[in-house]
Design brief:
about 300 residues; alpha+beta; 6-stranded antiparallel β-sheet; 4-stranded antiparallel β-sheet; 12 helices; about 50% helix; about 20% strand; globular
Length: about 300
């Protein structure tokens, strides 16, 4: 199944929902179908491990020092939880941006990964990269989308096709990048421990020596390997993480602005407001007000 065939299937699904819905989710699958008819503003968000296949249009994503541009027929692969800046850069009424997104499951990868039977040793590439779509992946996504026409088979077949996608990725030429999600013997696994520690409790302020002990590395080794994978230092990663969480709380909760900074680990409300304004080009109070005005 080629790209144009999958686009036709995706358009059929989009036509049922309506072109105003940017993200279409499926009841029996983790699959997300994304579409937009115009370029989007720059958006800060947190990516979990995922696969994003761009069927049409173009998307740019940056994480720290890393920046990828993904056009039609290519895919963005994310192997770790990382804060990113993303933007749809090419989309129009005639040729909308269309992509299929699937979260990557460590459990599914484990089913098909056996270090003793594969030569694909985990590599040390960045946690985000753009690749050509491996053989068979487009067809699998096409079949996953087509299951929407056969609801009686969806519950049975969707998990199997998602397993197939994971297996094909793992055993493709980019399998080394994904192997880092399942193998505990490389530096990536040690960095993953630190990433989990930082995500689990944003209000804490672990020092670099504490993070290094968690990773089982020296401070300099932690800084080197953490930045080589995420594109940013542990301190910069923590700051990005806190501001993204704060943005969610500012926009979606009724918690006082003055307390949100403390919730995500800031000790100074003034510093929180300065960092928030620098990151999002708007103060926390103005951001909350603009969101409520749009909703109202």
């Amino acid at each position: 199944m080629d790209t144009e065939s999958v686009i036709r299937i995706a358009r059929k699904r989009i036509s049922r929902i309506g072109p105003t819905e940017n993200y279409i989710r499926f009841d029996s699958s983790d699959l997300v179908l994304a579409q937009t008819i115009k370029p989007t503003p720059v958006e800060a968000t947190l990516y979990q491990p995922l696969l994003c296949v761009v069927l049409q249009g173009e998307k740019e994503v940056s994480a720290g020092k890393y920046r990828v541009r993904c056009a039609q027929g290519h895919m963005i692969l994310v192997s770790h939880c990382i804060p990113v800046i993303s933007q749809i850069t090419r989309a129009s009424d005639k040729r909308p941006y269309i992509a299929v997104i699937l979260p990557l499951s460590r459990e599914k990868l484990l089913r098909y990964y056996d270090l003793a039977k594969t030569s694909r040793i985990p590599d040390e590439s960045a946690a985000i990269a753009c690749y050509e779509v491996p053989k068979g992946i487009l067809g699998a996504f096409g079949r996953l989308l087509e299951l929407d026409d056969e609801p009686q088979l969806t519950l049975s077949l969707s998990p199997l096709i998602e397993d197939e996608i994971h297996a094909r990725l793992l055993h493709s030429e980019i399998g080394g990048m994904l192997a880092r999600l399942v193998w505990n013997g490389d530096k990536s696994a040690q960095v993953t421990k630190v990433i989990k520690m930082l995500n689990d409790d944003l209000s804490s302020n672990p020092s670099i020596p504490e993070l290094a002990r968690e990773a089982g590395m020296s401070k300099s080794a932690l800084h080197f390997h953490f930045k080589s994978i995420t594109g940013m230092s542990p301190l910069a990663y923590t700051k990005e993480l806190r501001l993204l969480k704060a943005q969610t709380l500012v926009r979606e909760s009724i918690r006082p602005i003055s307390m949100i900074g403390f919730d995500v680990g800031y000790n100074s409300p003034a510093q929180f407001s300065r960092d928030y304004s620098k990151k999002f080009d708007v103060s926390p109070r103005q951001d909350r007000k603009s969101v409520r005005n749009r909703v109202g």
